[in-house]
Amino acid sequence: MRVLGIETSCDETGVAVYDTARPGPDGLRAHAVYSQIALHAEYGGVVPELASRDHVRKLLPLIRQTLGEAGLSTADLDGVAYTAGPGLVGALLVGAGVARSLAWALDVPAIGVHHMEGHLLAPLLEDPDLEPPFVALLVSGGHTQLVGVDAIGRYRLLGETLDDAAGEAFDKTAKLMGLPYPGGPQLAKLAETGRPGTFKFARPMTDRPGLDFSFSGLKTQVLLAWRDSDKADSTKADIARGFEDAVVDTLAIKCQRALDAAGCDTLVVAGGVGANKRLREKLHAIADKRGGRVCFPRPSLCTDNGAMIAFAGALRLQAGQNSGREVHVQPRWDMASLPAVPPATTA
């Protein structure tokens, strides 16, 4: 089954083709992502209306490009998957409208995919032997969640952020320190040159039981440290390192607790912050110590992309699930409400 995947939940236009006849990473026939970073840099953040308009401008050319790279035409497609939520409503409607129209014209099924399920399943795209049950850390600019995965489509929320997501905290902290947009990757790069331990910030909510997160207070600590500092480049790097270490340690501590609570030694990490080098090193060390494993998608599949949507959609389309003909999106969408996928269809 050849499935076209379309991702337009925020500021990246992603398109991919996944072929279920080719297991594992070979099934990804082609994928492409167009980022709107330059468009939104002037404003220091995503402007929803501009994001929607740019998706309109780029989506059809990107579909043609991706199909060409896959050596396919629209007539070769057996299904279409698109991000139906959560996300910016205007951006979601662009992808959903194109996907539903294409599916109707080709007389093939279409399915709306949950954006975070796409992230969660991305590591399975690259490792066909990875199967539930496992614990997933979904960590991005909009979400920080620990999820118990009993099966594909059977998810239990174990803990989540009570305020800022980890990626959002990276971006806001970078902005207050004067780093260019997008701030998160810039801050992580700066932290590579910082001295560990020079600035010691709290590991929020690790001094009490539970699996929830909070990063707003950590952001305030950094603001105060930056305000009272000499603003030298070396100091900026030291503060960035202290902040990154605090976030990474907090995520790692909570992941260990979640694994203990679930009685599981397999951790899956997905989302944009999953590309952070220090987080990867820390979680790999924890997994080795436990005799377990931690699985990440390749860095290019950590951020928003069409490959994860094509793959997640293919699993559900193979199971006979599809969406109605109406163009429907859900800017807010609880992943626990998703239907389960029968195990036989995930092999």
UniProtKB/TrEMBL annotation:
One of its GO terms (cellular component) is cytoplasm. It comes from the Bacteria. InterPro entries: ATPase_NBD, Gcp-like_dom, KAE1/TsaD, Peptidase_M22_CS, TsaD. Binds 1 Fe(2+) ion per subunit. The keyword Kinase applies. Its main location: cytoplasm. Substrate binds at L138, V139, S140, G141, G142, D171, G184, N276. It is found in: Cytoplasm. Its cofactor is Fe(2+). Residues 28-311 form the Gcp-like domain. Belongs to the KAE1 / TsaD family. This is tRNA N6-adenosine threonylcarbamoyltransferase. The lineage of its organism: Bacteria, Pseudomonadati, Pseudomonadota, Gammaproteobacteria, Lysobacterales. The gene is tsaD.
